[in-house]
Each structure stands twice: as C-alpha cells, then as structure tokens.
Task: inverse folding
C-alpha cells in the first residue's frame, strides 16, 4: 500500500521530500512506498516499534544507504542520484546527532566538537575555539571542553553529540533516539535543547524516536511507521493533536504503550536478525 503524497501549492519551504520510497531486503519490503515532506522550521518525528524500519529510513535520508527504488530530495536535490562528491556537499548542510553520541573516546569534548570545523572549513583555530565554547554553552556544558567522553555522564555525552551536530550551523538536524536511556529529567533537558535549536537557531529537525512523552513534547508533526502486517507503511501522519485523535487501533496501541492490540510482539527469524542489526 502506498501513501499518496499530499499536494501543496507552495513547495518553496520544503526542505526534505520522500517520494515512493521502497527498501527491500531478501525479497521482503521493509519500507513500502513512503511519501512525506518536511518543511523548514518543523520538528518532524518519525516513530514506530522495533523492527519497523526507522533506522533503515534514517540511513537512506542521510545518504548512507541507497533505497531499492524511490527518491529522497534534500534541499531540492535527489540525493539517491548524486555522486559521492556532490553528496558530501549536501551533507555539509545538515547535522547528524547519533543515538549514543558516537564521540571519539581519545579526543576531549572540545576536540570532538571542533572536528567538523577542522575537517570542513577554513576557520582560524582561535575562532574554532570560540565556536566550541558557544556550542557547549548552548547545550549547558560550559567549561567541559577538556573532559574526555569517559569522564562525563551518558546524558552529557548526548548533549556533546548534539553540540557537535550543530557545529557547522546546519539548516537541518537529524537526530536518532536522542533521549533513549535517559531519566525523565535529562529527557526533558535534551528535549528543551532540541526545541531551542529549532526555535532560536532556526534549524529544521527530523527526529527518530519511540519515546512518546518526548515526541509529543517537541513535535510539530509526527509520522508513524507500521510493522507486522503493515510493515513499511505510514500508519498515520499529522500534528500531535491529530495523532492523539486518530482512532487507528495500531496507532493508539503504540502511543498508549499497551500490550494487547494489533502490533505483533512475536518476531520472525528475519525480524529478529534485522533487529540485531540495529533496524528500529
């Protein structure tokens, strides 16, 4: 089943558009004809259960994996058709906040944040140092530039990862499960940082999450991917209120966190292997 894209009379504010996206593994469609758009200034949440294809979709959106068919338009360009050099230029316009921070353990916090600037700009070292301090202040970690990742908490490492993702002042931020493993207070802190990034800096955010409290707190719009008999389909898309009001039993089971319902909890062997590989 394909999700027909919504028509719009003004496409000038569309920063990301997915068209008829399909990803097949071993003859099985993990993503099945996805269509959706993300507009500038939005915080767009992609949610769904384990094994639904969230991670696969994110990899495709950042150009780390090519889909079986369909297209992904970032800043008006179909990244599925770009050569590596052109794709690298597109990547300079977005930041990636990884689930566990993905910090280099041998580097200090400051060196981790400075790395994108050193690799992709010709900024003077003194200015890089200033930018590092500004980004650390943004995420509430002023004075931590000389600490190693092993010397700070998991929540702090997530904030450092966000600071690094914002080092080049991207137009678009991709964030993978930014609140997983955090306590409620730290989850609220990370959520507020995401909101500050979008509202104060003007960054558009695409966030993959299964944390419903966090998702409803920060979302402008939300999209849910299906699993089981609805694998790879868009179950629902809309504002947080539209998602809450949507009577779809699959959706309601997920957002309420109920054991009983249409979402399958018994995985096939293929589902389990895919889960082990980190998809969802």
Result:
């Amino acid at each position: 089943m394909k999700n027909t894209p919504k028509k719009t009379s003004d496409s000038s504010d569309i920063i990301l558009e997915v068209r008829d996206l399909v990803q097949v593994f071993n003859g099985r469609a993990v993503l099945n004809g996805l269509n959706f758009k993300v507009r500038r200034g939005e915080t767009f949440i992609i949610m769904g259960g384990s094994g639904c294809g969230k991670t696969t979709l994110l990899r495709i959106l950042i150009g780390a994996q090519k889909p079986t068919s369909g297209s992904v338009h970032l800043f008006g360009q179909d990244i599925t058709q770009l050569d590596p050099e052109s794709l690298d230029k597109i990547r300079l316009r977005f930041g990636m906040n990884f689930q566990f921070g993905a910090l280099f353990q041998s580097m200090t916090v400051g060196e981790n944040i400075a790395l994108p600037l050193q690799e992709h700009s010709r900024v003077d070292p003194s200015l890089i140092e200033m930018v590092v301090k500004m980004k650390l202040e943004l995420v509430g970690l002023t004075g931590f530039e000389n600490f190693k990742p092993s010397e700070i908490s998991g929540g702090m490492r997530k904030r450092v990862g966000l600071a690094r993702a914002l080092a080049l002042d991207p137009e678009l931020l991709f964030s993978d499960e930014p609140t997983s493993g955090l306590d409620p207070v730290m989850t609220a802190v990370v959520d507020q940082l995401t909101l500050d990034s979008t509202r104060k800096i003007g960054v558009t955010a695409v966030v993959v999450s299964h944390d419903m409290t966090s998702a409803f707190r920060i979302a402008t719009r939300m999209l849910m991917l299906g699993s089981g008999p609805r694998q790879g389909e868009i179950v629902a898309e809309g504002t947080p209120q539209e998602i809450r009001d949507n009577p779809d039993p699959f959706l309601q089971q997920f957002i309420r966190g109920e054991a009983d319902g249409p979402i399958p909890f018994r995985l096939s062997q293929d589902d389990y292997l895919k889960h082990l590989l980190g998809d969802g």
